[in-house]
Amino acid sequence: MKKYITLLSIVALFFMGIQSSVAQDAHKQRPEAIAKQQTYDIHKLVDLTGDQQGEVFKVLVEQQTNLSGIEKNTKSIATAQEAKLAVLENTNKRLKAILTPEQYKIYQESLEKEKK
């Protein structure tokens, strides 16, 4: 009986460890997955063309890659915030070049609503 309890305890601990690992992986998604979701959200918002979707996706993948690199490599919070702000400004400039003026205006309005 004691062997069965020990075995069940080990199995339970094993599954708890796997669950914890999966939760951590879900929290740290790949840049491509995040960019894909963001591209889809922008598409729903402003109805992107096929070419625009591809361009926006590339910009957002680069943004997410840069942001994750900043988080990993920057020790100072102030430096990290400055670097993130620079990445976001660059992304906005590039999106402005891809989107039509009407689409960009709608996109900016949605960002303002999110801030509030």
Briefly characterize the structure.
With 116 residues, the chain is mainly α.
Explain this structure to me?
The chain is mainly α. Helices cover 89% and strands 0% of the residues. The chain has one domain. The protein has helices spanning 2-27, 31-46, 50-73, 77-98, 101-115. Helix 2 (31-46) packs across helix 3 and helix 3 (50-73) packs antiparallel against helix 4. The radius of gyration is 21 Å and the shape is elongated.
Count of the domains: 1
The proportion of strand residues reads: under 5%
- Main structural class: mainly alpha
First-to-last CA distance = 60 Å
Mean pLDDT: 82
Rg value = 21 Å
The low-confidence runs, each spanning 5 or more residues with pLDDT under 50, are none
- The total count of strands amounts to 0
* Helical residue percent band: over 70%
SSE topology string: HHHHH
* Count of discrete alpha- or pi-helical segments spanning 4 or more residues: 5
Q: Please summarize the sheet with the most strands.
A: none
Query: Overall 3D geometry?
Result: elongated
